[in-house]
Amino acid sequence: MKVLILGATGMLGKALMQEAFLRNLEAIGIARKNTEISIDITDDHSLTNFIFESRPDVVINAAAIVSHEDCENDPGNAYNVNARAVSVLADICASIKAYFIQISTDHYYTGDKDLAHDENYPEKLLNEYARSKYAGECFALLNADTLVVRTNIVGFRDRKGQPTFLEWGINSILEDKSIVLFDDYYTSSITVKQFSVSLFDLIEKRPRGILNIACREVASKKQFIESIAKEMGVTLSKTKSGSVLDFKGTRRAESLGLDVRKAESVLSYKLPDFQEVVSSLVTEYKPRGEKI
Known about the structure:
The chain is of the alpha/beta class. The protein has helices at 11-22, 44-54, 68-73, 75-96, 128-140, 165-174, 192-203, 221-232, 261-267, 274-285; strands spanning 2-6, 26-30, 58-61, 99-103, 146-150, 153-154, 179-182, 186-187, 190-191, 209-212, 219-220, 239-242. Strand 4 (99-103), helix 5 and strand 5 form a beta-alpha-beta unit. The chain is globular and about 55 Å long. The chain starts with a strand and ends in a 7-residue tail after the last helix.
């Protein structure tokens, strides 16, 4: 099986490439820069020509503008990358009969606290990021042979000056920084490695439509950081609870829990629980140079 992965240099893209390698699959990675095959996802001509020439069996689109601020500041560019390009990809995949997988988001729910939302729960689009990603979902599903995946991934990007939430959290824990932890911002975060394993397991079954792939439990950001610290054996002394509603900036959805029972039914196994996610992240961190 030949798999084409767009956004191959991102945190998720790297994990997907690694999982494909471990499964002895032929994987081709594309990104805008810093990779052997550099193609801008908004370059219709180059993208179309390359996919028609390479003829992949599966196309996974993990390319996106994920910065809420960038989407708000330039909604036109957010639309071009997160939505319009998805429409082009869906058409190309339909033409070559490739299975199309669109990696989406969980930023569609608000005011529900720790509710786990299933795939049919009504969406609320609070910002340009959510609007552009939702439009991308709609375009993707115009191709009947498509899987749209809603998720919340966490992991290590190892990019100086651009820490992920996890990297920021671990740095804050180790340095015992004075930080505010949101106790009203809920997610079903799953590691990029756990996500990649489940996604490739799903590819073998070729489901269509929308599926949630995430942790099977919902936790607040405060619970997440405190649990990471506990797993690392570190006592937090300078943290305090706060509300995401006090966040100065782009309005964000805060009830991002996902119900994963549908995906578990297709996979025929349980997705990771909260403690499994936390333990996996700390285990992955240990060889990175810091003594825990």
